[in-house]
């Protein structure tokens, strides 16, 4: 599933709704002719729930590009699930690291935080993969964190959010996003890799 942040109307037959003042940037982008810009003051994209981004026990990959305005404010890149319990999100932290957080309903949470600070004012490639019970996160092709965790990510009946918390107001992302993909059924990366030099979106 490709979430086209540069043309957020219909993406892969999913209706995408904009929130705040989310808009395109035709001057700063990674591939194509534009990227999505989020001003950190409530901008986001919302996509209706769909089984295509349900992990369950399946392998999965989340990947894309981000170009943040600063390294001192955290921001959610993508989030899905309930507001209080049973959710997951992928974000950049206030210290400039990548983090995956998984909170299953009634179960223990899992947090994966990478050690490397991302670049500011330039494009960074992010990726998260789930292979069986092994979760990995990558920054610019470098493996940041790996753990084996039996946590099962549930099937949520809520909208998918890009650039903000599930509640639509908290932890807004500030900067540019491009070529975000969620791939169910395949863990594309299991170790350090060379980041794509061309558009790799599958749809």
Rg from C-alpha positions?
15 Å
Q: Pairing-aware structural class of the strands and helices?
A: mainly beta
Please give the number of β-strands: 17
Overall shape: globular
Averaged pLDDT: 85
Relative helix content: under 10%
Q: How much strand content do the residues show?
A: 35-45%
Sheet with the most strands, sense and barrel status: 8 strands, antiparallel
State the distance separating the first and last CA atoms: 7 Å
What does this structure look like?
The structure is a single chain. The chain is mainly β and 203 residues long. It has no helices and 17 strands. It has strands spanning 2-3, 10-11, 14-15, 17-19, 23-25, 35-39, 44-47, 60-68, 75-81, 87-92, 98-103, 110-113, 124-131, 134-139, 142-148, 160-162, 174-184. Strands 1, 5, 6, 8, 13, 14, 15 and 17 form an eight-stranded antiparallel sheet that branches. Strand 14 and strand 15 form a beta hairpin. The radius of gyration is 15 Å and the shape is globular.
């Amino acid at each position: 599933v490709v979430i086209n942040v540069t043309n957020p109307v219909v993406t892969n037959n999913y209706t995408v709704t904009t929130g705040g003042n989310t808009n395109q940037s035709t001057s700063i982008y990674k591939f194509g002719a534009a990227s999505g810009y989020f001003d950190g003051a409530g901008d986001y994209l919302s996509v209706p729930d769909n089984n295509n981004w349900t992990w369950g026990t399946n392998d999965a990959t989340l990947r894309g590009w981000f170009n943040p305005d600063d390294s001192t404010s955290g921001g959610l890149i993508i989030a899905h699930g309930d507001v209080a319990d049973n959710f997951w999100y992928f974000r950049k932290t206030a210290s400039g690291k990548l983090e995956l957080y998984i909170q299953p309903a009634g179960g223990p949470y899992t947090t994966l935080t990478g050690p490397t600070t991302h670049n500011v004012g330039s494009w960074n490639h992010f990726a998260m993969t789930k292979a069986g019970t092994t979760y990995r996160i990558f920054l610019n092709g470098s493996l940041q964190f790996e753990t084996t965790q039996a946590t099962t990510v549930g099937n949520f009946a809520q909208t998918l959010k890009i650039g903000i918390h599930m509640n639509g107001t908290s932890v807004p992302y500030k900067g540019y996003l491009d070529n975000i993909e969620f791939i169910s059924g395949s863990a594309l990366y299991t170790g350090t890799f060379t980041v794509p030099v061309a558009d790799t979106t599958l749809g």
